[in-house]
Amino acid sequence: MKKNFIFYFNLFALFIVLLLIQGVYSAYYYKISAIIDFLPFESKSSINPYIWNENGLVEILQNIFLLVSVFFIFRFIYGHKYESRHIFFTIFIYSYFIGLIYYFFEEISWGQHIFFWESNEFFLKFNNQAETNFHNMSNLLNELPRTLLLIWCSFSFLVCYFFNESKQFLKFKIFIFPNDNLKKISFLLLFFVIPDLIVDKFNLHPGYPIDWITEIRLYEILDLITFNYVRLSELQELIFDYYILSHSYYLIKNI
Predict the structure, then answer these.
(1) How many whole angstroms separate alpha carbon 11 and alpha carbon 138?
(2) Distances (CA, A) of 180 to 1, 171, 177, 243
(3) C-alpha closest to that of 63 among 218, 216, 250, 242
């Protein structure tokens, strides 16, 4: 099992590296094309829409990870159907399952990204992107679930140090952190969260000028360090979803 995890984790990490390389090329093309003679120079900085935009590669992978995770958690619940007599544990599992389904449907805008229907008047009026979802309607509906996801995927491994081995908490501990391999994904996520968090909290970013010069400036260095030359929120969500997929996989393996 460990060898399988290492293989898929390395494959996932390689995919992220390729995304970052492509992101550097797109975001800093105006500098790269000034250095490399055979590239036509253009004052252009962008992201690849086929990778980062709605229904792009990253979002499609996110949705696949979530859909498979929903299936795995359903199998886990079915496997514990006649085993669990702990009411709070049962409520916890079903709440997680319902939350995961909600997360999946929000990501596909409840089917709008697949079937391309028009949003009704309510969502056209109150949704920031005129989509059929709730998380784009307010910062609370977006940032609160995102923060909870960040805590879950980054710090679940700490539960090993705070939950004792009594029968009362053992099932919760096994559910929250079913395999030590998940720690590697948590560290990967924190690697893409902490630099941006530091720059944001200490207000270190000088802002973006509108000129196109080839000298390297502070904001470009900070964008490189914080990975803001790609859609960082989408990259973080991809790691969220990979964590959830791996977590749900280990749950059914532990039944």
Answers:
(1) 35
(2) 12, 16, 7, 12
(3) 242
